[in-house]
Write a structure and sequence with these properties.
The protein is α/β, with parallel strands linked by helices. It contains 14 helices and 24 strands. The longest helix has 14 residues. The chain is elongated, with a radius of gyration of 21 Å. The N and C termini lie close together (10 Å). Bound molecules: uridine-diphosphate-2(N-acetylglucosaminyl) butyric acid (EPU). The site of uridine-diphosphate-2(N-acetylglucosaminyl) butyric acid (EPU) has 27 residues, from α1, α5, α6 and α12.
Length: 420
């Protein structure tokens, strides 16, 4: 667990790592070719390690010649069946299904199932595969997706602009016969990042980043080298750490062009924000003001920053109303913030934060990676010691969160449970 001692405003500069949610589908994309795919700026976090293990199990040669670099070659697959444990612990592992189906005409995986932030079904992915001619029994577990005669491009309407769903269908469509049009596609930057890699591999994709993506199938893809984009959610987390602590932090490499929604809210809440190409500086010297916000698909405010921003609003003057509109159960962290003295209540997908409240230390849990970030942020300003348990969730998604925060002057350390 982490031990966080509240107090000092954060100051200095910190460099963000490669984006978790861009790295994971990029790793899965290596399955689309028998040639080498070299990925740089891959964050060393548990989620990328778990997916490496899954790719290795499938028969992909995975090597890591230096920190942050992954070399993947899928030239001798043993199986297209994913082991249950590796999909159950990392939902993004389901991103291998699209490429496996596209290249080998079959894939099998357990249903990833719900998790603490919501039900998270995969029906949109499966409906998309069916629109491309695949057969699948939606109620089977493990799910088996097959296209014995190969995939045939077609029009694919997504019931909701699912991020991984868009990525999975886009990857499958790369090797389908003919043209695929994905309607109501996700527009997240990580989808554009994946399209860039696929294009380098020889895919024909237009419109990634818009709600309509067109893919013209090609017979084969080849190897490529690609740099993973910097993590916009990690960037936002450090920006929020600066705001809650009343500090002055330069977030190097932050993709400011993808953070408009957060930066607008930070300014409205009273922080000073300077955005430039490849970085943002956030400082705050006056009291925070309440703001209302909704978590939405991109370019709306990311659901992954909903809990961390709410933690900051516990210190803002006035009442903030927060509406989570992406996941059906992403308010559980509210109970953890309350343990630290926050005045925050939730009903369904809405929460109401009243502030400012002086927070005190306590013992809380990281319920998921972003809920964990929220309680760490609260701990930075709570009086006394905050113990954050279950930080394996944070280790899944943030690279060296503790040492990066320490470099900004935060008092945070990893301790063994039972040693408090
Ligand atoms: N949904 C369905 N059916 C589907 C797929 C999704 O109903 O087949 C629903 C989900 O239940 C949810 C909504 O659609 O209510 C959005 O889910 P989406 O599929 O867009 O999420 P995801 O692709 O599974 C990615 C990120 C998440 C991030 C969301 C939203 C990765 C590996 N994960 O998940 O990241 O919150 O997009 O932006 O890219 C995190 O990093 O902490 C994290 C949870």
């Amino acid at each position: 667990m982490y031990r966080v001692v509240g107090g000092p405003p954060l100051a200095g500069s910190v460099r963000v790592s490669g984006a978790k949610n861009a790295a994971l589908p990029a790793m899965a994309a290596a399955l689309l070719t028998d040639e080498e795919v070299v990925l740089r700026n891959v964050p060393e976090i548990d989620d990328t390690r778990t997916l490496s293990r899954l790719l290795d199990y499938l028969g992909v040669k995975v090597s890591r010649p230096e920190a942050g670099v992954l070399v993947l070659r899928a030239d001798g697959l043993h199986t297209t069946t994913c082991p249950t444990d590796l999909v159950a612990t990392n939902r993004a592992s389901f991103a291998v299904v699209g490429p496996l189906l596209g290249r080998f005409q079959e894939a099998s995986s357990t249903t990833p199932g719900g998790d603490v932030i919501g039900q998270r079904p995969v029906d949109i992915h499966l409906t998309g595969f069916v629109s491309l001619g695949a057969e699948v029994d939606f109620s089977a577990d493990p799910l088996v997706v097959r296209a014995p005669n190969g995939l045939q491009g077609g029009r694919v309407f997504l019931d909701y602009p699912s991020v991984l769903g868009t990525q999975n269908i886009m990857m499958a469509a790369c090797l389908a016969r003919g043209e695929t049009v994905i309607v109501n596609a996700g527009t997240e930057p990580e989808i554009q990042g994946l399209a860039q890699l696929l294009t380098l591999m020889g895919a024909k994709i237009r419109g990634a980043g818009t709600q309509t993506i067109e893919v013209t199938g090609v017979p084969r893809l080849h190897g490529a080298q690609h740099r993973i984009m910097p993590d916009r959610i990690e960037s936002g987390t450090f920006a929020l750490a600066a705001a809650i602590s009343g500090g002055d932090v330069d977030v190097e490499d932050a993709p400011s062009q993808y953070l408009d929604s957060l930066l607008a809210k930070l300014r409205a809440a009273g922080a000073e924000v300077q955005a430039r190409d490849g970085g943002i500086r956030v400082c705050r010297s006056s009291p925070l003001r309440s703001v209302n916000f909704q978590a939405l698909p991109y370019p709306g405010l990311p659901t992954d920053l909903q809990a961390p921003l709410s933690a900051v609003l516990t210190q803002a003057e006035g009442v903030s109303i927060v509406h989570e509109r992406v996941f059906d159960n992403r308010m559980l962290y509210v109970g953890e913030l309350r343990k630290l003295g926050a005045e925050i209540v939730s009903a369904g997908s809405v929460s109401i934060v009243s502030g400012p409240r002086r927070l005190h230390g306590g013992r809380v849990r990281a319920l998921d990676v972003r809920a964990g970030a929220a309680v760490v942020l609260a701990g930075l300003v709570a009086e006394g010691e905050t113990f954050v348990e279950d930080i394996y969730h944070l280790d899944r998604g943030y690279e060296n969160l503790d040492t990066k925060l320490q470099s900004l002057g935060a008092r945070i350390e990893r301790v063994q449970p039972g040693k408090d």
